[in-house]
Amino acid sequence: MQDDTNANGTANVRFASLTPLLQPRSVAVVGASADATRIGGRPVSYMLRGEFQGRVMPVNPKRSEIQRLPAYASIDDLPEAPDASVVAVPAAQVVDTVDALGRRGGRSAIIFSSGFSEVGAQGEALQQQLLATARRHGMRLLGPNTAGAFNSTIGFFGSFMSGLERGFPLPGRIGIASQSGAYGAHLLGLARARGLGTPICAATGNECDVTLGEAIGWMVENPDIDVVMAYAEAVRDVDSFIAALEAAHAARKPVILQKVGRSALGQKAAMSHTAALAGDDRVFDAMLADYAVIRVESSAELLDVAYTATRRIYPANNSLGMLTISGGAGIIVSDLAEQLDVPMPPMPEPAQADLKAAVPFCSPINPVDCTAQVLNDLTLAGTFGERMVSDGGYASVLAFFSQAGTVPSVAPKLCAELKKVKDAHPDRLFVMSLIGEPEQNRPYEEAGFVLMEDPTDAVKVIKAMGQLGDAFARPLPRREAVSPVTLPEVTPGEAEAKQLLAAHGIPAVPEKVLGSAEEAAAYAEQIGFPVVMKIASADIVHKSEIGGVLLNVADADSVREGFQTLLGNAERHVPDAKLDGVLVARQIVGGVECFMGIQRDPQFGPVAVFGLGGIFVEVLKDVAFRRCPFDREEARDLILSIKGAPLLQGARGRAPVDLDALSQVLANLSRFAVGAGERLDSIDINPVFAMPEGQGAFAADAVIQLNEQK
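Structure tokens predicted for Acetate--CoA ligase family protein:
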């Protein structure tokens, strides 16, 4: 990869170094076999059948000819330096083979061979030796332990995928990037069966060099590809993955991602609420939220969304209008649209009146049930469709005609009527729910409609296209430089943690750690009752669990008594804890308790968490995540994304909280987390009191956990 920086402050990465690998002009096959069914024979056979536009050079010291091609006894005997080389030799020979290719001037290699990092420490050491050898020669490596890559637009098949025996990829504009070669081949087979063209595929295998992100990036920058389907088990290189998503945004080419492995973070749940709430999967989704990526749950959904995306219509501010001949289908779609938060506003009343006049027994609200009456006069389908788009203003239209839409007596006229509407509104997404044989569906496909048998699948893809439209309409997040934060040498106690945070724009309530009961009583009188009292000790994190917190302490005598109670509880439950004294703080009244936290993800760095505070953060787990850092507006979006957001906005007559102040505090926390660097493990601020408008937001409790080994 070659890097520079764009005006957005993000990496603008070009992926041209993969061109010799994925669009080669000459290919050497080292370990080539005369048997077209063997791993070393398949690439040769496939490229001969596919009429590769370049030169294929088999290397095998035991043969002078392989599959009717001249074979070469060694890499040194090759007539020219290959752009790409397929390496199909035992693992022990791979390093020497790549070294020889590098000396010959080879630019890239696809390593079929297994026996590297996937088999343990010895294999990992061999893989590192392989990578060092390739880098010494400036070569790019795909794999090892990969099923390879193909680019059927030029007849290149550097792959042993057995499914290619059944047929080559269909022409089309969808790329496949997969960490698993077998699953990449599975997607190829599914796409062929669905009639989808996937001319370019790369299986990245162990990713000792070329990553999944780079494969995606090269495809989105390729003019032959409009959509990338990706399968991932783990993101091994975050920088290249994010760079690919930024390139996809710039090119307006979506990535449809099937990410598996919903494991929990390696976490210190006893030390941090945030770690207990965060998980690999939720953090990963938070990272994706900034980009034009649709994450799917199944391969069927992957194909559905990718197929729909090939129409390249991504409606921002999406809305759905449904034209149906079935009231039941309308109910099904309405239920799912509400569940998926796809707006289905009603038709304007004048338009409803006109449609009712045309078909008195129709239901013109939305869904617009035109009834089977339109099958008697198919011009009505065009009339209804046009009014839905021009009057209803729907960005997406779903037409449910099921089997009726493909029978010979209906299909030609219905397709022609709806095509007029579609052609008059090329910026709208038109999806049809039809059941028919491929030849019956073909006129609708050729007219540019998206076809789905099941109307629920149609709603899902309409939702996805709207998400893409909203993503493309947003600018990429700015990742501005953040000033370093100086952390203490050891994990701080609560009072020190809040002082440190306050110095970086996360204010705390008035408070002080006192060493005697009399000092505590005097300070409480100074700041005003009621007060909160807590044991002050860095060794006691969850104070309430040992009776280390007292609320609503109303007078000086109660402070004195509480002081002794707290010390006694600490001595009884955690006798070895180092005590700093007792913290006395003004008790906030009238705000909404919120939770803010930071968890350092091993891949994506610091991630912010926000939710309602107190016990609700653990009980309800209604929290949202975002990768740090971010600004106040992004913080506000994060805050309002939780289900409990109405409580912050004045639900049921409550005063709305100071969202500007709360958002600024959260944004400041995100910047603090980045500035603190890798020594910061986590932060919990619970609660943060969000006060009524104009009164600010204050941290009432804070825990900072440091990695003292770094």
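The longest helix spans residues 455-473.
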